[in-house]
Design brief:
By secondary structure, the protein is of the alpha/beta class. Helices cover 39% and strands 21% of the residues. The chain contains 6 helices and 5 strands; from the N terminus they run βαβααβααβαβ. The two termini are 27 Å apart.
């Protein structure tokens, strides 16, 4: 099993990274192959050029196109780890999520779904600095649609 974790915090050694590291180390101890996507790499925001809607891929040449799409394609599970920034994800992670529009377009516009990965699981890890009844609502909604775009079932969450 290949598990890809997304370290969605701009702070490399913060609480989000700590939680993701524990999660991924446990997966590795159970025999999984683990990979980490660092959002501090250069991911250019979506330009809404429309190429993905017509061709099924994003023409922007960066870390997303060179590494991230392939890591998603190969993953049996994707773990999205993020802090809460104004009830949602940090901007750097949001760029990765928005660029997943190319995968959504392949699936829903062009009907080029990946039938071999319909079993992919998505899991959310999120850390908030304050308490609030609806603190994770925005992130949960974003995660739900992100996982759909990458053909992953929203399998569960751990929020703190």
């Amino acid at each position: 099993m290949i598990i890809t974790g997304i370290q969605g915090s701009p702070r490399n050694k913060g609480n989000t990274n700590f939680l993701l590291s524990l999660f991924m180390n446990e997966c590795k101890s159970l025999g999984a192959t683990t990979r980490i996507i660092e959002i501090n790499q250069s991911i250019i925001p979506c330009k809404e050029c429309g190429a993905c809607e017509n061709k099924g891929f994003c023409p922007t040449d960066d870390y997303m196109s060179k590494e991230v799409y392939g890591l998603f394609r190969d993953a049996d599970a994707v773990v999205l780890a993020t802090p809460v920034f104004f009830y949602n994800t940090p901007a750097q992670l949001k760029s990765l999520i928005d660029r997943s529009q190319a995968l959504w377009a392949r699936k829903y516009r062009l009907k080029l779904d990946e039938p071999c990965k319909n079993h992919r699981k998505g899991f959310l890890l999120s850390v908030g600095a304050t308490k609030g009844k609806n603190l994770f609502d925005g992130i949960n909604l974003t995660a739900k649609y992100f996982f759909d775009a990458i053909s992953a079932n929203f399998h569960g969450e751990l929020t703190y």
